[in-house]
Protein: Ech hydrogenase subunit EchB
Organism: Adlercreutzia hattorii
Amino acid sequence: MTLLTTLIGTLLFAVAGPVIGCLLAGLDRIISARMQGRVGPPLLQPYYDVRKLFEKERVSVNSVEGVYVACALLFALIAGGIFYSGGNLLLCVFVITLSSLFFIMAAYSTRSPYAEVGAARETLQVMSYEPMVLLMAVAFFQAAGSFDVAEVFQLNHPIICTIWLVFLGVLFILTIKLRKSPFDLSMSHHAHQEIVRGMTTEMSGPTLGMVEIMHWCENVLFLGWIGMFFLWANPVSILVAVVIVLLVYFLEIWIDNNFARVKWQFMFKSAWLVALIAGGVNVAFLAFL
């Protein structure tokens, strides 16, 4: 993959990622409302909310908060561009982690006790899911023979046939990555979970709007990781991957609406245990096969 390909992919993802992510967020609200016996908002309600945020006056507790959030959004777009242009999966993982670190620094920079607690919890979330994500990249290399995502379209069968344990591990930590209950410790979109919204307590206006767009792009990227497991050298596989991704997203919404938040100790231990069993065993098996 060339630098030009990655740049083009990033630009395309910067346009398509927020649009698809916005529609997914709207679908999330509608399905959640129906599960709770409500009518729910229209599909484009997330877009209306973000547009309203950008129309508000820019108010910030310091001059670096917006810079950190902008960097987090930028690296999320770059990570999406790398992945969807068929680039290096390991590099994509590192870049999206860098995005998370900038977001954590943005929360810490506000010096709000609520935001600092949220930032500490976000750090714990990163520490919880990162081993499984790295093992996913290693297992992908073992199954596809390369870190390049485009290689899946050269395979005779989807990589889930050989790394299905890793897929189950990624499915588990996906709930943490999407910030869904029961692992929405750092910030929650459910009003009953907390009085203030963790990391974004002191964020408002355009800064909070960028956070929402970043979250949309992250969702599209992470769901792309799920679809990657079902692609092979057949155009029909793209349709199969899309269907699986939608089913997984529905499952995440169902989990989000049926489980209460757990303590960070349970999240940390369970995520590492899943990484050790699902990821470690699968990688070790392929290494000595």
